[in-house]
Amino acid sequence: MTDLAAVKRALAAQRIETPSWAFGNSGTRFKVFAQAGVPRTPEEKIADAGMVHRFTGVAPTVALHIPWDKVGDYAALTRYAADQGVGIGAINTNVFQDDDYKLGSVTNPDPGIRRKATDHLLEAIDIMDQTGSRDLKLWFADGLNYPGQDDLRNRQDRLAAALRETYDRLGAHQRMLLEYKLFEPAFYATDVPDWGTSYAHCVELGERAVVCIDTGHHAPGTNIEFIVAFLLRQKKLGAFDFNSRFYADDDLMAGAADPFQLFRIMNEIIRGDALDPAYGINFMLDQCHNIEAKIPAIIRSVMNVQEASAKALLVDRDALATAQNNGDVLEANSILMDAYNTDVRPLLAEVRADAGLDPDPIAAYRRSGYQEKIVAERVGGTQAGWGA
Ligand code: RM4
Ligand code: MN
């Protein structure tokens, strides 16, 4: 039997981090459809993140992306965030949008460009010192389009050197999250293509280097929950970038395309006792909202993660272990599916009501008048994002 009170406590304590860039404009390679009311400044993105937290109660931090969120005074930005009811979360680096990085950033054959890229990573740690952030998130677009274009092994050495220098600059309470991605923008070879490569670099670096799993960054059909189980066992799972994909790195709302996969991932998290924020996993969203309203889409994504987590918490672990140990294949599978098929929306409504929140965060957001307010106020200036 599952202890419902414990399930509710775990759900109330759950934390999900929103990405500042999800509040800005985004699009495909073909078109960015600008939306009215979109933030123009880091402050406005943070204000929107504050609304997601206000209505969900479980999204108290917002990740920044540098230089997209570059400001003159990060201590002031952190105070501003606190006024909006949120803290600054992970600092994301950007070594993929400068002309110099055409042939790579930290793996570039040109030592001057490698220096510039590594300096950006170090600058991000300076920012973390001012925002009080724990996590430095690294994602590299580095890779090759053609066989023979550069030396695969040398590039691994260059990557290792940059990571080492960056890791050594981290403060005692700071961590490095190393993300991987199968392909894109490079099509032939990527320098950190998979969890194994990320894991090996993290092991070499030390305890505070951990893997970030972006759910959109695998080959179709990859069993992501296996990666979760493996990395948890090795104490090397540091974070998620949640989003959904149908084909490639679609960056759709978490839990939208395959809620069953999100459940299976959260099931391994619960199995590893790793949902509690004290365990140290940063459950982040990394997604874009190209055609849907952004703030409610982010609220919806947070709710989808909550629903997958609630279902995973409801798995009858004792009964499952007994069925597994008895080799009862059908019973074990049906115990898992019973939890997945439970409608957890009433349970989450109760958790929200207990926390003094509206049981329906999206309806509450719509009633708040915030959307009308930002549409009226955010006139002029340049909207944040991929350009309009
Ligand atoms: C990358 C990767 C990173 C994110 C950027 C915007 O594909 O997922 O996590 O920072 O996109
Ligand atoms: Mn990501």
Q: Which small compounds were modeled alongside the protein?
A: beta-L-rhamnopyranose, manganese (II) ion
The averaged pLDDT comes out at: 98
| Helical/strand content category | alpha/beta
Estimate percent helicity.
40-55%
* DSSP, total strands: 10
Gross morphology is globular
Please write the string of helix (H) and strand (E) elements: HEHEHEHEEHEEHEHEHEHHHHHH
Largest sheet strand order: 1-2-3-4-6-8-9-10
Number of helices: 14
Spatial gap, N to C terminus: 53 Å
Report the uncertain regions.
Answer: none
Strand fraction: 5-15%
Q: Mind telling me the C-alpha Rg?
A: 21 Å
Tell me the major beta sheet. 8 strands, parallel
Describe it for me?
The chain is of the alpha/beta class and 388 residues long. Helices cover 45% and strands 12% of the residues. It has helices at residues 4-13, 42-56, 74-83, 111-131, 152-169, 195-205, 224-233, 259-271, 294-313, 317-325, 329-340, 345-354, 361-368, 370-377; strands at residues 17-19, 61-66, 87-93, 135-138, 143-144, 175-179, 189-190, 209-214, 237-242, 282-285. The strands form two sheets. An eight-stranded parallel sheet has the order 1-2-3-4-6-8-9-10. Strands 5-7 form a two-stranded antiparallel sheet. Helix 4 packs parallel to helix 5. The longest helix has 21 residues, at 111-131. It is globular. The relative contact order is 0.15. The mean pLDDT is 98.
